[in-house]
Design a protein that fits this description.
By secondary structure, the chain is mostly helical. It has 4 helices and 2 strands; from the N terminus they run H-H-E-E-H-H.
Length: 172
């Protein structure tokens, strides 16, 4: 996988985080309004209002963070693609990859799911399984190093937690 491909997937993943953050903020704003109305009517506490204010602020932060990550990812993608000042051209967007997109719209593909080689022969479209993708990802030394460092850190946490367990010794 190229850096550009990885960055496109990252852009789409971050873009997908923006919608839930907006929905979470809207939901908590509604809950805050309802809690304020209950508190004003005397059937709710002010702590409920404060609780939802906190949740609204947390959701607002999540939304701002997701939007900033999205903008950074777009600039990173533009830089990888070689655009001046790491900015995509005006009007250019990263389109969502959906399964509804017909494969036949891609160059060299036919409606039958075969790859047109330009001659009379066609070959099956190579589809990678999850295991093949996982094997490819873990074949990269940098990813393998990070994965092993995470495992090492988790082992260290387990060792640290073991100090809190009681020890038993038997005297014979």
């Amino acid at each position: 996988m190229t850096n550009q491909t990885i960055n496109v997937v990252w852009v789409l993943e971050i873009e997908g985080a923006i919608f839930p953050a907006k929905a979470d903020m809207a939901f908590n704003q509604d809950q805050e309004i309802e809690a304020a109305a209950k508190e004003k009517a005397g059937s709710g506490s002010y702590s409920d209002v404060l609780n939802f204010k906190t949740k609204v602020n947390t959701a607002r932060f999540s939304l701002l963070s997701a939007e900033q990550d999205f903008n950074e990812a777009i600039h990173g993608l533009a830089a990888l693609m070689g655009y001046k000042n790491a900015c995509l051209p005006e009007g250019m967007m990263v389109s969502e990859l959906t399964p509804e997109t017909p494969d036949s719209s891609l160059p060299g593909k036919t409606d039958t799911g075969k790859i047109n080689t330009g001659s009379d022969t066609q070959i099956d479209d190579p589809v990678m399984t999850d295991q093949q993708i996982k094997d490819l990802v873990f074949s990269r030394p940098d990813i393998k190093e990070v994965f092993l460092s995470v495992q090492d850190a988790q082992a260290g946490i387990g060792i640290a937690k073991s100090a809190y367990f009681p020890t038993i010794s038997l005297a014979l």
